[in-house]
Amino acid sequence: MSIVRGRLTQEESRAAALDAARDLLIEAGPQAVTLKAVAARIGRTHANLLHHFGTAAGLQGALARMIAERVTLEIGRAVELARQGQADPREIVDRTFDAFAREGAGALAAWMMLSGNRDALNPVLDAIHGLVDQLREGHEDRPIRAVTLWLVLAALGDSLLGAPMAEALGLERGTARELATRQLLAETGLGAI
């Protein structure tokens, strides 16, 4: 439990709330990310969080934006390192799958879609679109958009159903990542992404 003490700037208070929201998301799932729960986690009031985010949907949207920015930054770094021959393309797959699983982006995206809060996904979609635009610069001949589509969909599906599906099929848990890595190499040609 992370209690924030003392007087914080608005920016620090907002950041502490988002970190607590992310922790709740990972620990207990998206339904646990409420203004009341986040306020309790950081020792603030519900009114304080209303001031920063306006509504629970505002908090969820800000959380989605934060996760999307962190995730796309990490994936972008992995792609650039792979292009320079300094990283295995598997790192791209692992960072993408981890973003949706360990970072909570998969559960958050699914919950937003199922609860009808699709607008809150815009920061995630915008961040991915921005990353694709950045990665395409100077590499317009490569299938970056298509690869991004299937990789994100595979990572999202794996974050939601990967463990039980692999178990039901008698496969190792990392099988989806292995398949995604093979597909990435086949689509892009030995790290030429």
Automatic annotation (TrEMBL):
It holds the Pfam family TetR_N. Residues 34-53 bind DNA. Keywords: DNA-binding, Transcription, Transcription regulation. It comes from the Bacteria. Residues 11-71 form the HTH tetR-type domain. This is TetR family transcriptional regulator.
